Protein 1
Amino acid sequence: MTGDAAVFRPRADVRFRVIGDEAVVVRQEDAEVIALNEVGASVLALLDSRRSVREVLDALLEQYDVDRESLSSDVLGFLSELRDAGVVEEA
Amino acid sequence: MSYQKTVLRTWNENLLFSALVELTYRCNLDCVFCYNDLGLRGRPMTLEDYELFFRDLASLSCLHLTLSGGEPLVHPRFFEIATLGRDLGFVLRIKSNGHSLRGRVLERLKNEVDPFVVEVSLHGASAETHDRQTRVEGSFERLLANLEEMLARGLRFKINSTLTRWNEVEIEGMFALAERFGAPLTVDPDVTPRDNGDFSPLEISATPSGLRRLFSYGRSEEVKRQGDVELPAVDSMKHCGAGSSGIAVDPFGNVYPCVQWRRPVGNLHQRSIRDIWSGNDKLEEVRKLSEEVKRNLSGGGPGMFCPGTAEGLTGSPIPRLPLHPSSKAL
């Protein structure tokens, strides 16, 4: 179970850009392209091998008007999906 | 939001998404129909120039970066430039003739650059034809050996070819070769004039029967123009993304809407790409022309028409007959 002290980073074969309010993610290994929505793009842009999930949540709370508990649940679920999809890994 | 919608957005909103960079016009082959303007002169881009340029591209959210030439691998600072591209998070493509892709060079390319794909050029299904076009004896056998090595090292590659009257009778053999390597083959049906307006390469353009042979044999995704990075087809007001989501840059910093549309819109020695990209009358004109081309082809879809090539051939990017027999506009 991933906690909010965990630190995530994009995997080495992942390339991405945030374009406006969305992100295009390319997984080079499998030549797969994934498009993320605005919140997904914001989360991915914050994963820099240094910020913990807690710090990512802090940054997101400054951008979005949402309560911490539900945001935490959503972000942890999203990170789990990104990990399963081969986009991120724990640093 | 799907990837296709993102690409459409880059076209419609003029978001720079891909750049093709010709690092040098030097080459270790000597192809008969090479389109480069070998007489073009100017101040070459330095490593420092590329660093500034790539950082600007990344800050503009440009994702795709293609290093081309000439032969990009003969640029003395190729690995530094390419590694810079990797470090800045671009999806890197290397367009190479494949001649030097072996041994230590290949090892460095895999380990230091880690490109998304290497695109290599095939000129025929036999040494006789391939070497005739490259004018370097042994280049065919060397390419095949290099492709074997790339396969063994796990480097993804695709194969590009241009149909000519010399190789048109070998088209089935070229597809068989690509299949042997498990690599996609894209065949461009058109030889184009050189970028200096020299039409002599067209002397080996494919014959009508060669074109029919290609169009009857190749699937639609295998027969298309070699332009910029391959992106999904989108239904936009524009014909293509030239100057709207993509650019090309020559070794001297001249910026063009596309590798095939050689209408200069700025120079990186004088202005940053950020400045060139915004509020540029020349780019605006290209974008409007792209819409006009789309309107002129309306009902027929984009087909094989290329405004850049048309401008090089006729002086106008607007479609005029005859188009290719494959074009839905006919």
Protein 2
Amino acid sequence: MMWELIAANRRKSMVLFAGMALILCLLGYGIGYTAYPDGGGPLGLIFAATIWLVLAAMAVFGGGSLILQLSRAKRVTPDVHPQLFNVVEEMKIASGLPAMPKIYIIDARAPNAFATGLRAEDSAIAVTAGLLTKLNRDELQGVIAHEMAHIVNRDVQFMTVAGIMLGSIVLLSQVFLRGMWLAPGSAKRVRPKSTSKAGPQGHIAIVIITIALAILGPIFARILYFALSRKREYLADASAVRFTRYPEGLASALEKMSSSTVPLETANQVTAPMYIVNPLEAKKGMSLSGLGSTHPPVHERIAILRNMTRGASLLQYQRSFSKTKGKPTMIIPSSGLKKDEPLKIRGAHPDVVKAKSKKGEIRDLMDLMRAVNGFAFLVCACGLKIKVPPDFEEPHIACPRCKRENKIPTAKVSDASEAAAVIGAMVGTLAGRGGQDLPAEVQNVPKGTTGPDAPPLEYRRKSDGWESFNCSCGKFHQISPAFSSHQITCRVCGRMIKIDPA
Amino acid sequence: MFQWIGLVIIVVAIASFIGMYNSLVQLRNRVKNAWSQIDVQLKRRHDLIPNLVETAKGYMQHERETLSAITDARSRAMGVEGVAAKGKAETQLSGALSKFMLVVENYPDLKANQNFLALQEELTSTENKIAFSRQSYNDSVLFFNNKIQMFPSNLIANMFNFIAEEFFEIEDEAEREVPKVQFTE
């Protein structure tokens, strides 16, 4: 059923794509013709195609990672926020996505999230640190489901392509109109020679049409783009409910996100349409809606979600949409509505984390940002949680409150491999050059080295709680209470670290 | 002339026979794959429970019954074979766990334990994963069972002994009751 939806989306994308391509071609041809009536048309066409190709190439090669970089998103491992990874995996199963998306945390207080990736296989989901501390489990699940729906419905792909088209059209008409402004009369000066097929009237008509197109084209393209963007937001909301079977989660998440007045500094005009809630609205402090908005009004999205009482299928979302808006606009492609799936709305999860005070929330947020940035956490005997920055190189740190010296835990070369090294050395001395039978790494263990070939380090856990320690390369590692594996690989140098239970 | 027509008919018959057989095998493999997704999560839940009980034991001396109900349900669920029977046993385990989670509300010290919170998060997530993978498993079973009962693929199914698969049902009533009980009490 999901693939039918995807196919319908693809068909629509093709129509839009063709429409925008037509505007672009006409514009290119017209500009070329206006500048050089003798054979300039095809040249303009080539020029337009080149602009489009360059922009498309930029988006395909590194568009996703560029956006992540611009948003100051950092890739994280499960131990930074186990719940986030759990929720993403749940939604991966629910949506039937073939591969786990990469997970990023944005170092920002404003609660928001977006998804990127042109293919479903190398997609990424980025959430802000503020989102993680503000939302409960059900709300987070709703947001992740919405982003997952964008990935599964191929919205990212589509909006990128459409965005590039829009960008090319805007760029081309800007160049043209400014060129006209700077060199007034240039179009009139260049008269077509008798070789041109069109007469003088034809020439003037083409020039006028081109000017009209340059002014109106970007507006039309933008309206088209925004209308589709809004529709896809609705569709992603509907799919999210289908995945989670809990409309209230997403509704209350949207409520929390839209009521936040903290601006998201890293968002701009280009990246704004990608976020779940338009981040620029918080900046301006007012709600934009209508033709010029990439997102449907949040209060409407919330109302639709809260009106869903009979089930969590796409059909129920469509019904709720028609009821709420008072007009039967089709939001979901008809292929998705053929049958009403018997999806019951589930109950809320008993909340794992208790409601926090404002102060506690901010403290959690700061801790999360530090964890993302590679800080280590030590609990001093006096009860103070010391945060050690990643570039701290001393083996000891003094507690800022009680001045007690705290040793920074470090993973050691394991006793077993050290013993093997000693034995290897002894065998080597006893048997002269007879040590060749032993594997090379046992013969001479290079001490204090790093890298994947170095002998494994060993860390013995002291408790069942959160713990952090240093690799020999200086990278801090954190293990959560839920950590159950027996080894990890250092993310910086690739050295293996064995973890012994307490 | 007639030999040729006969030959074409035979070739078409063999080709469709092979096609149907292969699609049945493919569907059966899809069911198996979907089941292994669930099985992984069920095992994960079984692995989490001893830790959970061990952590809770120290805090709730007066809840021996609740704890032993979980341990019993777990060992029963681990010993059971067959999809439908497993579904029944897992339903009991889910019921015991949700009862336990209700009792936990009375022990604020336990709820503040970091280790317990992490285990609770893992358990919630595992239960969600079971619920979500159950959907796709049951879908694939329905598709497969329809195929082996409908003409003409049922002929091939009978010939090669394709057996209808069982649905995996976990009643999530217990889960849905949790908030209700909280409000009525």
